[in-house]
Amino acid sequence: MPEVDAIAVVGLAFGDEGKGAAIDFFSRLFPQATVCRFNGGPQAAHHVLTPGGREHVFAQLGSGLFVPGVKSMSLETVYCEPLAALHEYRILEDKGVPLSGRLRFDEQCPVVTPYHKALGQLRELARRNRHGSCGLGVGELWQDERGGLPVIRLADLKTTGRRELLIRIRSLLGEKARTIGRVDHPRAREALDLFCDEQAFDYYFNKIDEFLQTAECAPVHVEPPVLFEGAQGALLDARHGFFPYVSVTDATQSNKLPAYRIGLIRAIWTRHGPGPFPGEDERIVLPEDRCNRTNFWQGPVRRGWLDLVLLHYALSFVQVDALGLTCIDHAQGQNYFLVRAYRFYSPATDAGEFFELDEKGEAIRIRRLPGTIAEQQRLTELLELCRPVLENHPAPVFDEGTGDSSGLADYLQKETGKPVVYFSAGPTALQKTWAGPVRWRPAAVPSRLTFTLHPGDNP
User: Fold this and answer.
1) φ and ψ at 242, to 5 degrees?
2) Segment holding 357, helix H or strand E
3) Peptide bond between residue 278 and the one before it cis (omega within 30 degrees of 0)
4) How far apart are CA 295 and CA 97, in angstroms?
5) What is the CATH number of domain 6-88+221-399?
6) For 290-336, how does the pLDDT look when each residue is reduced to its tens digit (9 = 90+)?
7) Domain boundaries defined on the chain
8) What is the pTM of this model?
């Protein structure tokens, strides 16, 4: 096996691919690593369950922190919400996870304020057709940053002029909120009232000092060994996703990472909220997941078959060295299918501009990346006119030695040219297998991968 200095974990679908659980697994293999967040922000929801039953949904912090010695670091491309980070810090410490000296954010990280959150919620509530926002304000900050409007960075929070800067941001975002106007919903009224709430402003201002005491905000220099943790799935990418049902994330940032990149896909796909999902099938039965439920902002959790058309599309703009197959246990007991192609149930004369069509007129690939928002939107409309062409396949079966004994991994490698090297059939690290590069500058390669259990994690 080759020697590696870094591993990057990215999702290749609509999220919920098991990125956090994979990072926890790799942290146990390499317990001196730094988990480095490189995109997204507080809207991440990476569920980790330890073998001993401790659990946490990592949002702002790296998902390896249950392992002593592992540190969390965020690059300047990560959006930071200080209150969310502080809240998560307190929760983890209450669970017996000491974090002192283990957290660092690049001082150039853009700061999500409560006013970005309030404006984003107000805008989502005012829409006739909901987009499925997480309601955390990241989208508003993303638009301001790219539009050249004033943006607070963590370095600004350490200056004496931060109060005036926060007041200015509140005023600018308040003006935007007033252009939306009153929306007849209790949450909307609460969001609009926040811009005039001086007590809430003082509370936020004082909490910033607490945040700065819990995490180091300084220039970040990444040194191996490192685990790069992505947030959001590739198919939600702001430029390549299906507008307007996209997230303010850049999945292509992982292409620049000096790492062995693993793209995760679920055996049974899910999508949280609205947007095209050609392989959706309500007949699929999934186990109850209390960490991934229907919620007010995102909407329902939907279920569908592994989609080869969309997988190829994700791989056209996200560069990975290998694949990881997760949630294998969800497929067991299902009459299992793969989405091989699409049929259009309504005439679409321009389908050939966006899709590669076979002799039957079935769409077998998305031909090219959209170059404009209008093209993203048209691709979205075409996907909503599609019905899946399903191919029956033996359901994947988890095997500790081989990872998958059904042949699905071999099938995926032939389809994509990427080996499947990571397998997951349950929430904890004990239910995962790694068949990829194993050497991280050790003297010898063990014959069988093992990892260390830590206090509180004994099965």
Assistant:
1) -105, 90
2) strand 355-357
3) no
4) 28
5) 3.40.440.10
6) 666 666 556 688 999 999 999 999 999 999 999 999 999 999 889 99
7) 6-88+221-399, 114-217
8) 0.92
